[in-house]
Amino acid sequence: MVEKKKDNRARVWAMVVYPESAPKNWRDILDSKHILWIESPLHDKDVNPDGEVKKPHWHVMLTFEGKKSFEQVKEIADSINSPIPQKVASPVGQVRYMIHMDNPEKYQYKREDIIPHGGADVDAYFEISATAKNRILWAMMEYINKNHVTSYAQFIGYIQSTQNHDWFDIAVNRNTLALKTLIDSNFQDFKRQDPLIQAQQMHEKGYSIRQIASILGISKTTVQKYIHQK
Predict the structure, then answer these.
(1) What is the model's pTM?
(2) How far apart are the C-alpha atoms of 179 and 181, rounded to whole Å?
(3) Residue among 150, 37, 130, 149 nearest 91 (CA)
(4) In order along the chain (230 residues), what is the average pLDDT of each group of 10 residues?
(5) Per residue in 173-207, is it b (16+ CB within 10 Å) or e — as a string?
(6) Which of 121, 136, 213, 225 has a 20 to 30 A CA-CA distance from 91?
């Protein structure tokens, strides 16, 4: 019986491009292949486990209409002086890795700096599954309750400051009503608290004395008295 030969071809391949060795027109060379490809932000802040800074580089993902062999893809890699290309097991994981989205211990690059070429759709790789959506929503509600968030605007500001795109998608496009209801409930609970406790909590969150006085309708002198009272 003849053993069936393993198919080592793939539709999606990844490679690394180094500014120091790639031709200046390396993007034009890839564009001339008329394929879908995605370019990462320049990784110039990556470090090795020993703290040594890695050479600046780009991660590139190529997507073909049909399967390509290693030899075929290596020809393309050689044309831009890229090292050995690798088959991509998970295109979604590969694109998310371009900004270290699931690796918080590594430097976090910006999603908006990912560049699509040839008609590639970057946003499609960041679609969230139903299971992941529920997990993210649970984490967001935990954060809201733990940190006594009483303002939707404040919450969105926090999300933007941390560049958490998954949370932003959930908060703005998917579960806005549920989150606003929870935040409003926290606000109503907050309003029923003793003004002294309100003033102290707001001070801990970074509100100025003037802001606290205005919100609670009390004098700045009273606010100062409250926030210094144990």
Answers:
(1) 0.64
(2) 5
(3) 37
(4) 71 97 97 96 93 94 96 97 95 94 90 95 86 89 90 91 87 89 86 78 85 85 84
(5) eebeeebeebbeebeeeeeeeeeeebbbbbbeeeb
(6) 136
